[in-house]
Amino acid sequence: MSEHIIIGHYNGQPTVTSREVAEHFKKNHRDVLESIRNITAENSAVADMFYETTYTAANKQSYPMYQMNRDGFTLLAMGFTGKDALEWKLKYIRAFNMMEEQLKVKEIQAAMPKVDARMMEAQARLNNSRVDTAKLLMQMGDKAALYYNREQCYQLALCTLAGKQPDEDMLPAGRHFYLKDSNAN
Question: What is the pLDDT of residues 152-162, one digit of tens each?
Fold first, then answer.
């Protein structure tokens, strides 16, 4: 008998086979199959907890077995008693928890490239808008009639490109902004 619990996944859920449960809990596999069939016959709501499948034995014949998720295992194992049964129940709970964590990590990792691509796209848009704003400020500075207005525009353009907040004294609030006369040469 193996001391290791193998938790696989079936239909996107962590599962264990009826054969492994029978082996670990020292039950005949046919008795475990009968227990599962009784559970599923009693209540149709548990049908999505057990997945009937087959395995191929050493004699190359196919035999029935079930894949069961955590809830299916819990329902089945409730009927198992004894010190060894309790130890195996605890081992299975830990194994299911570990597999569920691994599946969550895989889901998160699968979603990360999408999030990274969206973040990079948003950053590119922000950078483009900063460049556009800085260009406008530079053009405005080129048309400023007074030196300090021109310098303010250039400083604001630099702040915009760097993504920094401008200092209060850079902002022309309450001040006049004079443009060059477009008719003058």
Answer: 888 888 888 88
Residue 71 CA to residue 66 CA, distance in Å, equals 13
| Residue 139 identity (one-letter amino acid) | Q
The two three-digit tokens of residue 45, written as one number: 């709501």
Full DSSP string of the chain: --S----EEETTEEEEEHHHHHHHTT--HHHHHHHHHHHHHH-GGGGGGEEEEEEE-TTS-EEEEEEE-HHHHHHHHTT--SHHHHHHHHHHHHHHHHHHHHHHHHHHHHHHHHHHHHHHHHHHHHHHHHHHHHHHHHHHHHHBSSHHHHHHHHHHHHHHHHT-PPPGGGS-TTS--PBPPTT--
Query: pLDDT tens digits, residue range 123-133?
Result: 888 888 989 88
